[in-house]
Amino acid sequence: MTDDRASEISGVGSDSPGSADSRDSVFASLHIPNYRLFFAGMTVSMTGSWMQATAQAWLVLTLSGSASILGLIVALQALPVLLIGPYAGVIADRVDRRRLLTILQAMMGLLAAVLAALTLAGVVAVWHVAVLAVLLGLGHAFEQPARQAFIHQIVGKSLIRNAVTLNSVMVNAARAVGPAVAGVILTLVGAGWCFAINAVSFVAVVASLIALDSTKITQETPVPRAKGQLREGIRYVRGVPSLWIPLATMALVGTLAYNFPVTLTAAADFVFDGGPQALGFMTSAMGVGAVVGGLVVAARGTIGLRPLTLAAFGFGVTIAAAALAPNLVTAICALFLVGWLSVTFMSTGNATLQLNAEPQMRGRVMALWSVAFMGSTPIGGPLIGAVIEATNPRVGLGVGAAACLAAAVLAFVAAKRLRPAS
């Protein structure tokens, strides 16, 4: 997509801190020193977080032997996003986002250290994991909208699509490395060391936030505290089809498709009988696919409702292929494509929102995105876990595939009907 098209969609001109001649590069936003530093810190931290997610899922399944309980734990971690996510977006619009992120990242590192200590001491129980999952979810509820909006302050409008896509590439590269490493560590020394490594990894992102050059960050005046700001944000979104359609699409997909900690963990154990190493390979395959797909999107990707609809359709088809895979090798190949279409779908929706949201509303808009993506898990996690308990993991994946295809149809119909008004 050209820069002119990005400006047309957003309704505003460029305010990028980056150089204009670098904007067509796959790694354009990394030319900005502040984003490069922030990106590096987040890469280390995200790798540790994926190690913890993999180890935590395996620990819960080992302690409980139940996919339903695993789904419940995943849901509990996302519950704060559902309950307070929109209000967290109000906070992200009111405060210094850099300072808020520093505090939250330090807090989440401490929670990982507590889980590591309990596990290494051999006293960890499912309820410990549940409580810490809720607290970690509380941190994510405030961190997600603040981080998304802060990226815009670092790179500006002309590079936001590239930065958002590279951020997704980074997350999924971490998804490729973290679970694979976690699978080895789980086999050799157990889950506790995965949690300990994650706790240390938060040092990197905290250090990067402290080291950023303040003079190179676009300053946005915090929104003054006032009554009704949450309702104001929701009314604003409802009036802009290019905002509410991506949010509605993600809500459906997030509820029923983005439950991979449940579906893949259960499939690795109950379908392919492969243990933690199989889970690591399956999750890593998604990550590698997302990295490859993300690099393609970063160089050539477009934003808007039509690309979002196509990405949702492709996402559903690839999940269906994974659900029907006859063996582990075929499943790994299918999951590579799942990762590719997953990052395409997420990046397209995220960038579409960022470029269409007014600066004073960006925190609240991105909070609703977090609610649609992560906050839907308290509904979908237990539901998919129960489906797996009653049937098998293939059916759980099939439900996710159907949700993506339904979301594509709904987005297409809504965009077609509302096009004259938008």
From TrEMBL:
PANTHER family: INTEGRAL MEMBRANE EFFLUX PROTEIN-RELATED (PTHR23513), STAPHYLOFERRIN A TRANSPORTER (PTHR23513:SF11)
Region of interest called Disordered, as start-end residue ranges on this chain: 1-21
InterPro entries: MFS_dom, MFS_trans_sf, TM_effector
Organism: Gordonia namibiensis NBRC 108229
Keyword Transmembrane among record annotations: yes
Cellular component aspect of the GO annotation: plasma membrane
Transmembrane segments: 37-61, 67-88, 195-215, 236-258, 278-298, 305-323, 329-353, 365-388, 394-415
SUPFAM superfamilies assigned to the protein according to its UniProt record, in alphabetical order: MFS general substrate transporter (SSF103473)
Entry protein name: Putative major facilitator superfamily transporter
Keywords: Cell membrane, Membrane, Transmembrane, Transmembrane helix, Transport
